[in-house]
Design goal:
The chain is of the alpha+beta class and about 725 residues long. About 25% of the residues lie in helices and about 35% in strands. This is TMM8A factor.
């Protein structure tokens, strides 16, 4: 009745939601739940913009304790040997309302890191030109309220404690600390007395809630019967929360007496001197006589440790990079495995920054070391506490965690396990020798198992068809795979919709060779003596060809220089080609045209540096050049007092086909391109744009002879034609 509760509030800034195509589209929120929390409440706020493009939308929100949620909205495959458990998720619908507020309550949550991931449905795959359309904005924000008990009673091991439950609405919360090397805990509810002297009915809940799976142990006790529960493999060096609820009437208080007792596990391990000796040997080499000393000590320890309940092997954690750790066994990569007691390895993933990668454990059995040919080495990878009874139950589960089983034998000497986003905790690898005819034949047997364990950002670096990206939410880092060439899945191993090598080669050839359609435009420009325009088209054809050769997602890739440089040059050449073509059509004076060429190119280069994919980088120069062209044509038409251009053949056979090709090209570029059809729709864009340029280039001046190189290259003084411009006297 005198319990003091404190409420705390944690908030994070809202994030803009994205349609899902890979894990980078999911928006992650990271919270820390303090100790002694009895109630956790999430406040989830989803909202959408008021634009007309906004429609009804479903937001999926995933929850997980200890690590980011492992999700699979697209139903793709995970890599082989990866064990995945479904995430706990809810859906929030945004229909007629602009904002939706949802509450999620968690009673007695586990203390530590909690993660939320939110995303929209699957992405449509359509390539949208930036600035051409205004996408709807969907926002999501998660806030956390916690109710914490400041003076939670501590149940001391072996000491009975009496507490009172005031009413069913106010359950009793106590906690007990689980020491290291605890093998078993026995909890007893010795007495239960109500204030009305009636039959007592209480419910005891041991453990905290973790998502997506919760392993709380619940015992219902009625009457004055002694109620007890035994738990194996509890989380070491952590507080275990116990909640007792009254199931009686509202006005009756209940007095209960509780007792918790522990059975410890006596560990056996190599001596400290041997550990340091092995460490020094591995780093600086061994001195004379040292190997003999270490080997002798190891043999004595092996014979004397078989009476212990576990054999602990020293493991060194070696940090390599961000979310990259290697575990090195001091006594060598091979560990001895016996039948009497399990061999235990500690894999420390408790830094708070390790849960964003993948934990990989490889086991390789040395067949020559196994004296019993039909024996099997069973292993279990578990978090928070090890499994110490593999020889009896062969069940890879602890009191509050379902572990990941492995096994090796002479018929299958290798096993691998991949744990995606392992929760922040101490992880344990337990190994034990099992014989099919009973443990008696295994008492003298021994097996040597090579253990390779490491933490990597992305398993197998996402393979040849994926890119491992390091993602960040505030100070927390986690990794994800972005797949290409139609491959999908967590590690880009799902080839259901993958492009074959032939399709990849075809895509590369289409996107590169389609740029050869600029050759007719170059020939026409040179023939009509538009040499500056021809050089721009040559530049565009060259860089567009090699940019698309470098931009391919599969194996048919060739990069002659840095990708970013190729992309910039391709974009620059494309826009400048349109700019010089329209200015050339305007038929302004040469000096004005060339000034506009240079000035426009410099401004286009600046705008592309500011925003490379902005729609106005292309639309701006096009519109400005069109204004100049139309103004020039109107000026020529007024001056000549008839339509300009005056020839109907020019309109019918050149301008109208060129304008039609240009409009079709813009329509394909803006409205039809998707990730799936990009390689042929963008190739069509290349062909149409290059073809329109060849049609739209104006004819050469009537007084200028084509290919008049002999007149240009004579070595004598002469007065050149000035193309009806002013003569300049050189004095």
């Amino acid at each position: 009745s005198g319990s003091l509760f404190v409420s705390e509030y944690f908030s994070q800034s809202a994030q803009r939601l994205s349609f899902y195509s890979w894990y980078g589209n999911a928006k992650v929120f990271h919270f820390h739940v303090p100790e002694d929390t009895v109630l956790l409440r999430w406040l989830l706020q989803a909202s959408r913009g008021k634009e007309p493009e906004c429609t009804s939308m479903e937001v999926t929100v995933h929850f997980r304790y200890g690590a980011p949620p492992v999700i699979n909205p697209l139903g793709t495959q995970f890599p082989a040997n990866a064990t995945v458990r479904p995430s706990y998720n809810i859906s929030i619908t945004l229909s007629s309302t602009v904002q939706n507020t949802t509450f999620v309550n968690v009673t007695t949550p586990a203390a530590g890191d909690w993660f939320i991931a939110a995303h929209l449905p699957e992405a449509a795959g359509r390539i949208e030109v930036k600035g051409f359309s205004t996408p709807c904005t969907y926002m999501f924000q998660a806030d956390m309220f916690v109710l914490r008990l400041t003076d939670m009673p501590v149940l001391e091991p072996g000491v009975a404690m009496t507490q009172t439950i005031v009413s069913p609405a106010k359950p009793l919360h106590v906690k007990v600390f689980v020491p290291k090397y605890t093998a078993r805990m026995w909890f007893e509810l010795r007495s239960c007395v109500t204030s009305e002297q009636k039959a007592c009915a209480v419910r005891v809940v041991l453990g905290s809630i973790t998502l997506p799976q919760s392993f709380q142990r619940i015992v219902t006790c009625t009457g004055n019967v002694n109620c007890s529960l035994g738990l194996d493999s509890l989380p070491w060096e952590k507080w275990l929360q116990i909640m007792v609820e009254s199931l009686g009437t509202a006005n009756a208080s209940v007095s209960v007496e509780m007792l918790a007792s522990f059975t410890d596990c006596r560990p056996g391990s190599t001596s400290s001197f041997l550990n340091f000796s092995s460490l020094n040997q591995s780093q600086a080499g061994s001195g004379p006589g040292r190997p003999t000393l270490s080997t002798g000590m190891a043999l004595r320890n092996t014979s004397s440790q078989r009476s212990f309940c576990l054999q602990s092997q020293p493991v060194v954690r070696e940090d390599l990079d961000v979310v990259s750790v290697r575990y090195r066994l001091l006594n060598g990569p091979s560990v001895p495995v016996y039948s009497i007691s399990p061999t235990l390895l500690l894999l420390n993933l408790n830094s708070g920054m390790d849960s964003g990668g993948s934990l990989v454990v490889n086991l390789l059995l040395n067949k020559t070391s196994l004296s019993q040919a039909n024996a099997t080495v069973v292993a279990c990878v578990s978090a928070a506490s090890p499994v110490l009874s593999l020889n009896t139950t062969q069940n890879c589960s602890t009191a509050f965690f379902q572990g990941y089983p492995l096994s090796v034998s002479t018929s299958s000497a290798e096993a691998m396990l991949i744990v995606l986003y392992p929760q922040t905790d101490d992880w344990f690898l337990s190994l034990q020798l099992i014989c099919p005819k009973g443990q008696s034949e295994c008492n003298t047997a021994e097996a040597k198992v090579t253990v390779i364990a490491y933490l990597t950002p992305c398993f197998n670096d996402c393979g040849p068809y994926g890119q491992c990206s390091l993602l960040r939410r505030h100070g927390y880092l986690y990794a994800g795979c972005s797949c290409k060439a139609g491959w999908s899945g967590w590690s880009c191993t799902d080839d259901t919709k993958a492009q074959s090598v032939g399709v990849q080669n075809l895509a590369t050839l289409l996107l590169t060779l389609s740029n050869l359609m600029f050759l007719p435009a170059i020939v026409v420009a040179v023939y009509r003596y538009y040499l500056v325009e021809a050089s721009v088209y040559t530049y565009t054809m060259f860089f567009s060809t090699f940019y698309h050769a470098c931009d391919q997602p599969g194996v048919a890739v060739m990069c002659i220089m840095d990708y970013d440089t190729l992309q910039y040059c391709d974009f620059l050449g494309s826009v400048v080609s349109i700019w010089v073509t329209i200015l050339c059509m305007s038929r302004v004076k040469k000096i004005v045209k060339y000034v506009l060429f240079v000035l426009g190119t410099l401004l286009i280069a600046m705008s592309l540096q500011l925003d490379r994919r902005g729609v106005w980088n292309m639309m701006g120069p096009c519109l400005f050049a069109l204004v100049i062209m139309i103004s020039a044509w109107v000026y020529h038409g007024v001056k000549r007092k008839h339509c300009y251009p005056s020839s109907w053949k020019r309109w019918v056979f050149y301008l109208l086909p060129g304008i039609t090709l240009a409009f079709i090209a813009i329509s394909v570029y803006a409205f039809m391109e998707t990730n799936e059809n990009y390689y042929y729709t963008h190739s069509i864009w290349h062909v149409l744009v290059a073809g329109s340029v060849a049609f739209l280039l104006p004819p050469r001046d009537k007084h200028k002879k084509p290919w008049a190189w002999s007149q240009k290259l004579t070595c004598r003084y002469q007065i050149c034609q000035n193309d009806r411009e002013e003569l300049y006297a050189v004095t």
